[in-house]
Amino acid sequence: MPRSVANKLRQPRRRSAEMKKITLRFLLVLAAVSFNSGPSIAAETCQQIVANDLRKCGTQPAGLLRPVSELNGCFEVKIKAASPWNATGVRLERGRRYEFKVLPDKVGEDPMWYDASLDATPEGWTEESHKEMNSGSWFVRWYVAATDWLGYRRVTSQDWFYLMGMVAEVGDQLIPIGNGTTDTIQRSGEFCAFANDLPWTYRNNKGSLMLRVQELGK
Questions:
Q1: What's phi and psi for 216, nearest 5 deg?
Q2: DSSP state at residue 104
Q3: H or E stretch at 92
Q4: Cβ atoms of 77 and 211 closer than 8 Å
Q5: Dihedral sign for Cα atoms in the order 139, 135, 122, 179
Q6: CA torsion sign, 192 to 55 to 124 to 39?
Q7: Which residue has the higher pLDDT, 43 or 184?
Q8: Are residues 91 and 20 in the same domain?
Q9: 202 lies in the same domain as 128
């Protein structure tokens, strides 16, 4: 067989091998991008929902609650300091793991909310707020100490104004969120969130935090 004819027969084979290599490289790159950016893609498609400020957590019929799977597996909700419940109408499922994360404010600064005039972060009163209370009048110091001693703060194991989550339906599961956490749900129910305060003092609170909740699976 002439050499020129043999070379022409080899060319399609070489091109086919090169195309296979290019296709394989493309698939590997695509897989790496999907693996590394999967959570962020889901986060970008989080649905915005509005919490009910008045309804008590867990009072909405279970059939009317929306599972997170219907919200692209992720939702964002504004948690108001003045609301004792912030009932979302979203159902978290038993046995599934979720990520809870407080987002920066619109200008990229650390999120803040306020216990009356006291500054607080999602992790509770700031150091300055604690100093202000400790240096206040004898009545203020006595009032804070008495409510602590009597266990009137809603979650006594957490600081004043610490961001708390709750899953309520049959019994309640409390989730200390702070700036962010992950947790596995022990019983299905409606998700709500609140600032850790005295039950009767929410009206003088101000500000809000934007909370993202994302389902991670089992």
A1: -105, -15
A2: P
A3: strand 90-92
A4: yes
A5: negative
A6: positive
A7: 184
A8: no
A9: yes
